[in-house]
Design a protein that fits this description.
The chain is mainly β. It has 3 domains: 123 residues, Cupredoxins -  blue copper proteins (Immunoglobulin-like); 133 residues, Sandwich (Immunoglobulin-like), CATH 2.60.40; 124 residues, Immunoglobulin-like (Sandwich), CATH 2.60.40.420. 10% of the residues lie in helices and 41% in strands. The N terminus is likely disordered. Bound molecules: CU-O-CU linkage and copper (II) ion (2 copies). One copper (II) ion (CU) binds next to loops. This is Multicopper oxidase domain-containing protein. It holds the Pfam family Cu-oxidase_2.
Length: 460
């Protein structure tokens, strides 16, 4: 009887963790927000940088006593932050220690196709890929992740993603928080589904969703429900929606306002006051939030549709030197009359038949040919019943209009990924400054993997 009782008891403990791991309300141990390390630049020369990144298997303890198999870059889950400056010549050695092929794509970076890390830049197990590029764009928060054909969703899900910061004279001169991990904090937001053994179950999350992967547990920088100590003053948050498919609507639990200062491709001209922020998968937003009216010791939670998934414990004294800047940068509007070509991209289909313009991705087919140096207007339509994030490689867009209306202020800067609602028509403009083969696709990774992707070739 005693033995049976013990058995029941240990089963009970297991069942509790199991329930925790699958619980929609995110009950778990409290832990501090992990801050990804800054990757060391191995080249001492100014204006030159050299980095080493290794894709590898790892393990994490997301839940007390449960070891979860993961993957990461130079570590167990996610990757280090790569920080470079505009004008810098960068070389990265990317080694694949996984047992399957992968690629490493620089999302948002303006580089030639051969350095972009798309599906054509396959790195076989045991091999090293060495992209080289010069940073040719303003300060921004970009990111990197695998782009292996049909495997992007699974590999990102297992933990492969990292941030890529560009700094420049503008970011140097702005009086905004810049102390990495202290008052300038990255938030990589991702949803996950754990099975009964606490393993990341990709298939499970796919099963009951036609909209792409959906998880019940939100991770921030690879932690469940973390907290971070915050100053009783200004904090800068660099938010990446690194989820496979989920769109977040973020708010603070005390309802307080904040200011968006940057979109995907860099600073906005002026801070935009907001009380909620929508981010689709692949999108980034930098915000300034001022906790000076929060009482010392109080906690403010960050929520998605009313559900808290991380907290800020306001317990650090602030020297109160920051205010919201009047102006951040100057963005030269691309003149519509400069556009020489207009193209249409229409999201169509559902489930495994998702497509763009009725065709699915074929690595041997070039869908669009763009003249190097030309300016084009791309018009993205959505003939499906769900919202899709449109993304293109190697280029930053300006949004001209959404259904004929000017974009909201927080989308009036550089964008490489933007949401397109059912029935919506979004017109964007860009100048194509880099040569090679590039992808455009839906950034719901399951849609991308299913073929909601095409290729454009940029050449003289
Ligand atoms: Cu973030 Cu084609 O990717
Ligand atoms: Cu990309
Ligand atoms: Cu999609």
């Amino acid at each position: 009887i005693v033995g049976g009782g013990l058995l029941l008891y240990s089963w009970g403990v297991f069942a509790t963790s199991f329930k925790k791991a699958n619980n929609d309300t995110l009950v778990t141990k409290q832990q501090t927000l992990p801050i990804p390390p800054l990757l060391e630049d191995k080249n001492p020369a100014p204006n030159k940088a050299e980095f080493e990144i290794t894709a590898r298997d790892g393990t994490m303890e997301f839940f007390e006593g449960i070891i979860t198999n993961t993957r990461g870059y130079n570590g167990n889950f996610l990757g280090p932050v790569i920080r470079v400056r505009t004008g810098e010549e960068v070389s990265v050695k990317v080694t694949n220690e996984l047992d399957e092929s992968t690629t490493l794509h620089w999302h948002g970076l303006e580089v030639d196709g051969e350095n972009d890390g798309g599906p054509h830049n396959e790195i076989k197990p045991g091999e090293t890929w060495n992209p080289m590029f010069t940073i040719n764009q303003p300060a921004a928060t970009l990111w990197y992740h695998p782009h292996q054909m049909h495997k992007t969703g699974k590999q990102v899900y297992e933990g492969m993603a990292g941030l890529f910061y560009i700094e420049d004279e503008v970011s140097d001169s702005l009086k905004i928080p810049k102390e990495y991990g202290v008052n300038d904090v990255p938030l990589i937001i991702q949803d996950r589904r754990f099975d009964g053994d606490g393993q990341l179950d990709y298939e499970l999350g796919m099963k009951d969703s036609i909209v792409g992967f959906e998880g019940h547990t939100i991770l921030v920088n690879g932690a469940v429900n973390p907290f971070v100590e915050a100053p009783q003053g200004m904090m800068r948050l660099r938010i990446l929606n690194g989820s496979n498919g989920r769109i977040y609507n973020l708010k603070f639990s005390n309802g307080q306002e904040f200011y968006q200062i940057a979109s995907d491709g860099g600073f906005l001209e002026k801070p935009v006051r907001m009380d909620s922020l929508t981010v689709g998968s692949g999108e980034r937003a930098e915000i300034l939030v001022d906790f000076s009216k929060v009482a010392m010791g109080e906690t403010v939670e960050l929520q998605d549709q009313g559900i808290s998934f991380m907290s800020f414990v306001v317990n650090q004294a602030s020297d109160k030197v920051y205010s919201i800047p009047e102006k951040l940068t100057t963005i030269e509007k691309i003149d519509e009359r400069k556009a020489t070509t207009k193209r249409e991209f229409n999201f169509q289909g559902t489930g495994s038949s998702v497509s763009i313009n009725g065709v699915q991705m074929d690595m041997d087919r070039i869908d669009e040919e763009v003249n190097l140096g030309s300016t084009e207007i791309w018009e993205v339509g959505n003939f499906t019943g769900q919202t899709h994030p449109f993304h293109a490689h190697g280029v930053q867009f300006q949004i001209l209009d959404r259904n004929g209306n000017p974009p909201p202020d927080n989308e009036a800067g550089w964008k490489d990924t933007f949401l397109v609602k059912p029935g919506e028509n979004v017109r964007v403009i860009a100048t194509f400054k880099h040569e090679g083969i590039f992808m455009y696709h839906c950034h719901i990774l399951e849609h991308e993997d299913a073929g909601m992707m095409g290729q454009f070739l940029v050449e003289p």
